[in-house]
Amino acid sequence: MKLRSLVLAGLLLLMLGGLLAGAPSQAAAIQGEEIRIGFIIPQAGPIGFHGRQQMLTLELVQEDLAKQGNIAGLKLKPIVYDSQSKPQEAINAARRLIARDNVLVIVGPFLSAEAEVTFPVVNQAAIPIISPSSAKPGIAAKNRPWTFRTAIPTNMLYEKTVKKWVAEKKIKNVVVIYNNQDAINRGDGEMVYPSLLEPLGVKIVDKVSHPTAAFDFSAQVTRAISHKPDGIVLSSLPEESGLVIREVRRQGFNGPVLGNISFEQRAVDKAGKLADGAWTQQSFWTGSSDARVQNFVKRIVERSERNVNPAQESAAFYDAIFILKKVIEEEGITNDPAKIDEDRRKIRDGLAKLKDFPGISGKTTMRPDGDVDKEAVMLKVVDGKLVPIQ
Length: 390
What we know:
Blueprint: H1 2-22, H2 26-29, E1 34-41, H3 48-67, E2 75-82, H4 87-99, E3 105-107, H5 112-125, E4 129-131, E5 147-149, H6 154-169, E6 173-179, H7 183-197, E7 203-210, H8 218-225, E8 231-235, H9 238-250, E9 257-259, H10 265-271, E10 279-282, H11 291-303, H12 312-330, H13 340-352, E11 357-359, E12 362-366, E13 372-373, E14 377-382, E15 385-388
Parallel strand pairs: 1-2, 1-3, 3-4, 4-5, 6-7, 6-8, 8-9
Antiparallel strand pairs: 10-14, 11-12, 12-13, 14-15
């Protein structure tokens, strides 16, 4: 009886060993010492502030990854190119990352104008790319199946806020003041806001444009308020929006103002108290009570230019990398250079099925068109600060 028990125990051990050998862990399967991920970040040009903040965020990411065992046990090897806020430079960066650097996936570019021309190149090369900031509607959908974004498309981001603003402020007609050289602001001013306002019975009596980096808006504002609109809608870069509000108030218009995705705290700081009462919407609010958000904000402020709070794009950038960590660890990435095409397909497929990822910029689910479902936060300016609208 004793001998029989020993034999059975031995057989069980052999069977268990065989089962374990037949199901290797991700840690055993993955190769190398580092994961190569490409980044296209605008560190110069009109959007350089945001790019430099993303570089600070990348520092935080590497610190936090180290505390969490890195990515499947391997260190992140970021390969970063500066797009200089220029679409052609973003294309050049993508081509270098694909052909020369052999990265598994690309994070970026920042601007919608960059993404519009870079996404087709990357999609044709069959490598996954995820932009945490491009928000012009339709860019990912036109370049399936390799392109993804974690920023909320502006038509979805604005919808709830526009409805509430129109109803509460009793808006019947507006003037839209917008930047006609920046892709997302031009798209918002010419297409997105009209598509949201007109079905609500709001008449757009004029669209007044200006170039990037303008600093004197007196002519545009004079023209806008000559229509005596119920409200003004802004679709400009942050500092531009702040200057427009200052000029709007200087010329005596005290009515409601609604800002687009670029109307963040930097715009408010530029306008000062004159921005009080203006509305906007973001996918991330620095005043959230979430401990993870407060930790992120504190660390960015400590390291940033002039102790500035992180923008929503920085939070989405942070989340994008941790989304990739999740996908790489769950999809069985080999990190074998000979299997790079297979690994890229796995990352693409993992991103496509992402559901309810609990990021600092909100719970993220990927849609079939490559964009995300994520909650927006409605905000208004009170005493020079953005606070939630109840």
